[in-house]
Amino acid sequence: MSTAVKAGDELREAIDADDLIAASHILSDIAPQEIASLFEQMESYPRAVAYRLLTKDRALDVFEHMDTAAQSELITLLREDEVTSVFDSLDPDDRVELLDELPAKVAKQLVRELSPQERDVTAVILGYPRGSVGRRMSPEFVHVFPDDTLTRALERVRVRGMESETIYTVPVIGTSRGLEGVISLKDLFLMPSDDLVADHMASPIFAFADDDAESAARRCVDRHVLALPIVDHEERLLGLLTIDDATRIVEAARDEDAARAGAMEPLRRPYLLTPVLHLARSRIVWLLVLGISAILTVNVLQIFEATLEQLTALALFIPLLTGIGGNTGSQAATTVTRALAVDEAQPKDVGKVALKEVRTGLLLGIVLGAVGWLVATPVFGNGIGVVISLTLISICTIAATVGGTMPLLAKAIRVDPAVFSTPFISTFCDATGLIVYFMIARAVLSI
Amino acid sequence: MSTAVKAGDELREAIDADDLIAASHILSDIAPQEIASLFEQMESYPRAVAYRLLTKDRALDVFEHMDTAAQSELITLLREDEVTSVFDSLDPDDRVELLDELPAKVAKQLVRELSPQERDVTAVILGYPRGSVGRRMSPEFVHVFPDDTLTRALERVRVRGMESETIYTVPVIGTSRGLEGVISLKDLFLMPSDDLVADHMASPIFAFADDDAESAARRCVDRHVLALPIVDHEERLLGLLTIDDATRIVEAARDEDAARAGAMEPLRRPYLLTPVLHLARSRIVWLLVLGISAILTVNVLQIFEATLEQLTALALFIPLLTGIGGNTGSQAATTVTRALAVDEAQPKDVGKVALKEVRTGLLLGIVLGAVGWLVATPVFGNGIGVVISLTLISICTIAATVGGTMPLLAKAIRVDPAVFSTPFISTFCDATGLIVYFMIARAVLSI
Q1: DSSP H helices in A304-349
Q2: What CATH number corresponds to the domain at position A161?
Q3: Which residue stretches of chain A have pLDDT < 70?
Q4: Which of B2, B67, B226, B421 is the most buried (most CB within 10 A)?
């Protein structure tokens, strides 16, 4: 990694100094994937300069390996013929992803300049709803038939494989394009014989084209297949989702979840290259929403203002109690959000989850309550000690239960569970926790 | 997915009813990967029963597809000869992962029962430190030479490929086992000719065996290669990390990060199958650590107790202000932790990050401060409005800066940056925020 970083620094210096010969020399020593990685970290202008220094074949290779955001920035800085040549050579699924990213006007023009056959393939993919796996699959595959011999099937892959994005997973197709199985190139290649494909193929793991891209991709990744066949509702084969595209989709979904759990929108570019204004924009909406909902806590405290005036010491524990409530809630929310993402739990499990979290929260509350009583009593007296202890027990039970069930409810009403996780739950637990705290304090201390 | 869920329910019912013929019938209709997925969701005992109903070949296939936790549970319930046969047939890297998981006594016995050749391969992998990619690579690969013709290289892969975990990425090895390049089976297979391998191979992206498994795996995934060559410090080839193993490593690392960001330890089993006591254990340590550090906020408030007694209204805003500070801090921490994980930032960028976050935090603070003044002034008067507004500006600036730089400092001192993210930063920002709040209040309101 450190050699790549060094090459990146040298490249930038060479371009800053307009020393294009040195720059081109540096580029010729690096693998295309590494160059793509360097380019993703560079500013738009030096990147476009460096890109023009690559030979045509390498340039295409590098382009394919860059992420979509960097691709779309680069495209706007290239000459028209350069753009067409790059775009023409992309795999159809990568092309669709890039089209989704580009301004509509640029996108339209690019599709117009494709060869009619290429345009057809793109159109097939574009027929599926945004976010569906149909958009991300490759419609170019080579298939074999169940009554082929293994030798004939292997020959078929050899002849037709050139057009296919992957040849390592070979779908087996029966009458009227129905998917009947898959066979790996490894099996075909290592033991060609007169056995029939039907006797050696495996039953396929597949997804429907209008399935959510994220869940199809997770299926591909979790089940360790190199390509997932994508079918229509009559189980006719439409394309393949390859593992590298699947991994990319899963990673993007996890980035989005992590950003939401951190109360913001995901960034589209590398952090260090994102301008301050963009950073602020990705965060401000959530802060405002959370800030406004936090006004609830001000209202709750206003109700108990008289109690506070009588015993100011109660105010000392507010951040401690709301902090613990927030942490307990976000622990439960994080666990359940993940279980939902990997299909380990469904909204219908809400009863089981609630029962589990009530018990977990109660257990945590009892432990923390005991510690709280031991710590608070010597300094603030037994009255306050008991209040803190009872409040911790209640807050932990409520926070764990709410934190655990909210993501399931969000999923049931088709809202991204990650949106409902940590930050919202913290705010909710803050307000509820304060009410519980002051009610317990009034009852125990008779104020 | 719903058919798989249905099959799972049917299977459990059949086993509960001791109807093993029905169970075996259900199992024969499902792909091994799907069965593995079902098994991961089942309790230990019915899983062991169901496992014995599989034919030997399918049983091995299913075992390989299960996660390590489920494998290690199953192993303890099988007869000795069953265990040995399963273990013998695992790929060496999967075997090492399982050995890491098993109780030391069971693990030792298993290694003793391996064939000498198998034991050698396992030992090679076990020679690398825990957490290194050497532990996770497959040492069984087929290689070709730069001066082979493509036709001869293809033949070599055909003859020797059986022993190799993957044959789709073929490493090219020069004198004294030095890695010189890689060539894909697709290239070899689709255009065999008398051209030399040296003229068609690509320069390799590789990792060193003692590199951290996570960063090597991320390299494989980010660069979209199906297998990453692993070399020693003389760049001699030792093995390959395949993309499915790489994806598994990256996913596990992300689960760990997500759990840490939610203030707990990651779970080893599916959520719904994790007992309440394990759930509580994965959470309690963090809650105690955070709770004890939150005592700091009680101490801070004690210092300002006199101010609070004079103006109880100040207490009303405590949860609001600490909540916004916590959210701003965790936004910055989440962004920078992710940038570190994907190598978009290094600890040496701490200056750049700090500058970026000071400006972002200030910008966010000004917007929120303005909103805060508008909302607070009509109800609580201009004095309190100004205090809230100035506090928000300061808290947001401090929280963003601390939240952004803490993960870099953690990484610099070799602590997992995720550990330092959201929860700790919240607690720190709470205490600092309260000090700032009361100091501004005293100055502005002259109390």
Answers
A1: 305-310, 318-341
A2: 3.10.580.10
A3: 1-5, 80, 104-105, 109, 111, 116-117, 119-121, 123-125, 418-423
A4: B421
- Number of independent structural domains in chain B: 3
Q: Which of A243-247, A382-386, B45-49, B94-98 has the lowest mean pLDDT?
A: B94-98
Residues B181 and B277 in one domain: no
Q: Do A298 and B317 touch (CB under 8 A)?
A: yes
Binary contact (B189, A161; C-beta < 8 A): yes
Of B203, B320, B349, the CB nearest to A31: B203
Q: How far apart are CA A229 and CA A223, in angstroms?
A: 13
Contacts of A298 in chain B (CB under 8 A): 316-317, 319-320
A105 contact partners, CB below 8 Å, separation of at least 6 = none
ipTM over 0.85: no
B434 in the same domain as B316: yes
Query: What residue in A sits closest to B278 (Cα-Cα)?
Result: A360
Rounded-to-integer distance, Cα B442 and Cα B447, Å: 5
> First and final CA of chain B: distance in angstroms?
65
pLDDT beyond 50 at B80: yes
The per-residue pLDDT for range B279-321, each reduced to its tens digit, is 898 889 888 888 888 888 899 999 999 999 888 889 999 999 9
Residue B246: domain span? 150-254
Task: Quote the pLDDT of residue B421.
Answer: 61
Which of B422, B429, B432 is the best mutation test for A, with the most CBs of A within 10 A? Answer: B422
Q: Which of A193, A331, A368, A426 to substitute to test the interface with B, most B CBs within 10 Å? A: A331
* Chain B residues within an 8 Å CB radius of A286: 327, 331
Query: Is residue B220 domain-shared with residue B286, that is, in the same domain?
Result: no
Interface size A-B, in CB pairs within 8 Å, comes to: 337
The conformation of residue B235, written as its DSSP 8-state character, comes to: -
pLDDT, tens only, B397-416: 999 999 999 999 988 888 77
Rg over CA atoms, chain A: 29
For A363, the closest chain B residue by CA position comes to B280
